[in-house]
């Protein structure tokens, strides 16, 4: 990475952050869209959906003289750069690096995987082993616990689980 590159804030069209990201990357840009998991209830079922952490914005790494900066307004899904006065908004590299570590980039970063054995370290089922099924929001998990000869689905706080 060139020392003169900076992270700029790109304004996107409503709900077109992913489209803008894809088209910027097709032009050779290094762009980043921080995502998080939000729980939705659809037809009575809970589902997790990845959504932008900052709706309407994404980050673009570029040098100040990069010709790509002048093409942003014509990129599908993008409206342009965010400006403060006459200067484009620049974001600290440390902040973007931290967001990249915390963001949902892919499921491989998840702490627990479906089918993984876990141990409960608190609550009424302390020291019981279970099988991780799925995340239920940002703070809970669905596990399978063997009780009385059959597996029961149980929703617990993530803080109660340990990897077995």
Q: Count of DSSP E strands?
A: 14
CATH class of the largest domain: Alpha Beta
Number of domains: 2
Q: What name goes with the CATH superfamily of the largest domain?
A: NusG, N-terminal domain
Overall average pLDDT:
87
The percent range for strand residues is: 35-45%
> Architecture of the largest domain in CATH?
2-Layer Sandwich
Quick one: overall form?
elongated
**Number of helical runs?**
3
**CATH topology assignment of the largest domain:** Alpha-Beta Plaits
Please state the CA-atom Rg, rounded to the nearest Å: 21 Å
Q: State the helicity in percent bands.
A: 10-25%
Layout: helices, strands, pairs:
Blueprint: E1 6-12, H1 17-26, E2 30-32, E3 35-42, E4 45-52, E5 57-62, H2 68-71, E6 78-81, E7 83-84, E8 87-88, E9 90-91, H3 93-102, E10 117-120, E11 129-136, E12 140-147, E13 150-157, E14 161-163
Antiparallel strand pairs: 1-5, 1-6, 1-9, 2-5, 3-4, 7-8, 10-11, 10-14, 11-12, 12-13
Q: How does this model look, in words?
A:
The structure is a single chain. With 164 residues, this protein is mainly beta. The protein has two domains: 6-106, Alpha-Beta Plaits; 117-163, Roll (SH3 type barrels). The protein contains three helices and 14 strands. The strands form four sheets. Strands 1, 2, 5, 6 and 9 form a five-stranded antiparallel β-sheet that branches. A hairpin with an 8-residue loop joins strand 10 (117-120) and strand 11. The protein is elongated, with a radius of gyration of 21 Å. The two termini are 40 Å apart. The mean pLDDT is 87.
């Amino acid at each position: 990475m060139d020392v003169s590159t900076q992270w700029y804030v790109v304004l996107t069209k409503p709900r077109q952050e992913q489209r803008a990201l894809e088209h910027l990357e097709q032009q050779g840009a290094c762009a980043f869209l921080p995502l998080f998991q939000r729980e939705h209830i659809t037809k009575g079922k809970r589902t997790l959906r990845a959504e932008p952490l900052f709706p309407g914005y994404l980050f673009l790494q570029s040098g100040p003289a990069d010709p790509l900066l002048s093409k942003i307004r014509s990129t599908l899904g993008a409206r342009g750069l965010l400006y403060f006065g006459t200067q484009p908004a620049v974001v600290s590299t440390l902040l973007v690096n931290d967001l990249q570590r915390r963001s949902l980039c892919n499921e491989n970063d998840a702490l627990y995987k479906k089918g993984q054995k876990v141990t409960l370290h608190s609550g009424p089922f302390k020291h019981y082993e279970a099988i991780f099924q799925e995340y239920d929001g940002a703070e809970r998990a669905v596990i399978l616990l063997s009780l009385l000869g059959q597996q029961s689905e149980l929703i617990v706080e993530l803080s109660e689980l340990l990897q077995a």
